[in-house]
């Protein structure tokens, strides 16, 4: 591999990326499209998906920095487009860049301070001096800034906003009143984009979620939301073609390091990092942050999920009593459901989609219903691992170790040890969790915990988890054995009856041709002890 090939991990400056010869997946065709269409755009994408780099690329274009685009799509496209529009190519505009990535928005002064710093930097460029008593009036300062930029340059301004929703995300689950204050402040600030339309050439705002769109952008009826438009589905992220075209040497080195062939490396990358879709017919996308880290470290494992723990989303799912197995491909939401903006427990699913934990798996056009699920293994196992402590007595730090012990038990054929571990985990759920809850809810928690254990084992052994009648609850395959599990909830039967159900319904028949040993396990749940009461084993 050429050692001059530099992976742009964490690089968000287009100028630095190009000047220092980092690898770049060319997304400039989208800029050519955007600059000819609407004036004000919004894009929602998960964190670490390339939004900041795309905004930086837009900034370079509107600053007329032609030299940065040498060899890219936009180099020739801009010349051709300018000729068609009878204007000068690479025209420079005043660019106002508002970046909310900076800072922790945990107290009332933080957002005000950030807005003041960003406005002050821009005001200094155009010779604006703001008296101390006027500094908190951010909307009026923004308006004055736009007018002054136009007066001094004779050009309309370009407005770029990075992560508009970060102050809201950091307060949504911990300080409702502060969150409301932030919404009001930002709504007034962004309303200037509408009232000062004549002074604006172009505006592009990004964020992770759209949950506050109604309250924050309600005045922006000229805003075009690109988040779920087919033609802009690939604006951030890496497509299959882009992966294979731009990173062939890195894929080969990964394959060599992991002692696999090129095609197997491609398959593993796809299984772990691909699968994001932002339109039913849109292109599938890889998470760029994870792919680049996998190439740099020459190892396929979880990278994106480790950069942030969605604690509030886990809590929302628990509070809403959501049927956890449905997250893996059976979530159904209407178009209006996906556009739900209020961050409450009942609306956790739209935020899971917007945040990148769920993605589009299918679409029923006639009913306008989207089917959602985890995009890939990285998200699936990372999210389920964060969920297990909420439904068991485990801490987050112990989850991975506990799952591995389950895998070791089944590989050794130690079924009793396996069942004792499940019994211990379920029994470890604090009793207070059940205070005032119905029997049905207790069973839901038990069922969720069992599901999560088996689903997480799927990282290491082939596991199928079912939650409908007519099929065994869980199937685990090892190198030489197939385990078939059936669980009976409170009052629904004994362990022997669960075992008899496996035999009566001939669940094992479809696996006999595998030539492996088949072990049947029936289990029952004890309402009084709140854990597994007994189990019965048939070793065939």
Tell me what you see in this structure:
The chain has 540 residues and is of the alpha/beta class. 43% of the residues lie in helices and 14% in strands. The chain has 21 helices and 13 strands. The strands form three sheets. Strands 2-3-4-1-5 form a five-stranded parallel β-sheet. Strands 9-10-11-12-13 form a five-stranded mixed β-sheet, with helices on both faces. A three-stranded antiparallel β-sheet has the order 6-8-7. Helix 2 packs parallel to helix 4 and helix 11 crosses helix 12. It is elongated. The two termini are 53 Å apart. About 1% of the residues have low confidence.
Features:
540 residues; alpha/beta; five-stranded parallel β-sheet; 43% helix; 14% strand
Could you give the topology of this structure?
Layout: H1 14-19, H2 28-36, E1 40-44, H3 51-62, H4 73-84, E2 95-99, H5 108-125, H6 138-153, E3 157-162, H7 166-169, H8 176-195, E4 200-207, H9 213-216, E5 223-225, H10 240-246, H11 248-257, H12 262-273, H13 288-297, H14 311-319, E6 331-334, H15 335-338, H16 348-355, E7 359-364, E8 369-373, H17 377-387, H18 396-412, H19 415-427, H20 439-457, E9 462-465, E10 474-477, E11 481-488, H21 495-504, E12 517-526, E13 531-538
Parallel strand pairs: 1-4, 1-5, 2-3, 3-4, 11-12
Antiparallel strand pairs: 6-8, 7-8, 9-10, 10-11, 12-13
Helix pairs in contact: 2-4, 5-6, 6-8, 11-12, 18-19, 18-20
